[in-house]
Design brief:
CATH architecture: 3-Layer(aba) Sandwich
Structural class: alpha/beta
Number of domains: 1
CATH topology: Rossmann fold
CATH superfamily: Flavodoxin domain
Protein name: FMN dependent NADH:quinone oxidoreductase
Radius of gyration: 17 Å
CATH class: Alpha Beta
Order of helices and strands: EHEHHHEHEEEHEHH
Strand content: 15-25%
Low-confidence stretches: none
Helix content: 40-55%
Cofactor: FMN
Organism: Pontivivens ytuae
Number of helices: 8
Oligomer: single chain
Strand order of the largest sheet: 2-1-3-6-7
Distance between the termini: 7 Å
Subunit structure: Homodimer.
Largest sheet: 5 strands, parallel
Family: Belongs to the azoreductase type 1 family.
Mean pLDDT: 95
Length: about 200
């Protein structure tokens, strides 16, 4: 079994030396399928008043300027909608996610597009997908008391309807050394072997 369409989201400010970039790409390639890579490190646009105004204007009533203001968000949403599998590289910076990744979340979490509210509360519209989060850190333990990145990202994915989420951990590299990266590589091998089976 392969993933037909894989969205690989990279967010590390580092390039060649980034553990999340290397491991998330390895995971995506091992899964098989067509990979679309979105590097958000340069930064998606931040949400501002004009963006909010455009987003909450019914599509049929939007001006050309409002459509243009949402065009970047529309492209990011379309990538998510087209993906069967999402692989996200998540470095932990100062106990949280990179600002650029949070900006990406703000661009793709759109009411009546990727989620909606009903009588029983919010409902994600990106169902039938799975996601892998590849998290790396220097000292912060993934899912530890001061990890405000991994639970946040997993919650957002669930909010959008993506509830099949697996976390690959290469955390606490300054504490555990290369062993934590090697453990993540073994986890990737096991995960992809299970998918292939």
């Amino acid at each position: 079994m392969t993933s037909d369409n894989i969205l690989l989201v990279q967010s590390s400010a580092r390039t060649d030396a980034s553990v999340t970039r290397r491991l998330s790409r390895e995971l995506a390639e091992r899964l098989g399928g067509t990979i679309v890579e979105r590097d958000v490190a340069p930064g998606p646009e931040f949400v501002d008043g004009d963006w909010v105004g455009a987003n909450f204007t019914p599509a049929a009533d939007r001006t050309d300027a409002q459509h243009a203001r949402l065009s970047g968000s529309d492209a990011l949403v379309a990538e998510l909608q087209a993906a069967d599998t999402i692989v996200i590289g998540l470095p932990i910076y100062n106990f949280g996610m990179p600002a650029a990744l949070k900006a990406w979340i703000d661009q793709v979490a759109r009411s009546k597009v990727t989620f909606e509210y009903g009588d029983t509360g919010p409902r994600g519209l990106l169902t039938g997908k799975r996601a892998f989060i590849v998290v790396a850190s220097g000292g912060t333990e993934a899912f530890g008391d001061v990890d405000y990145a991994t639970p946040h990202l997993r919650h957002v994915l669930g909010f959008l309807g993506i509830t099949d989420v697996t976390v690959v951990r290469a955390d606490q590299q300054m504490v555990k050394g290369e062993a934590t990266v090697e453990a993540a590589e073994r986890q990737i091998e096991e995960l992809t072997a299970a998918v292939a089976a």
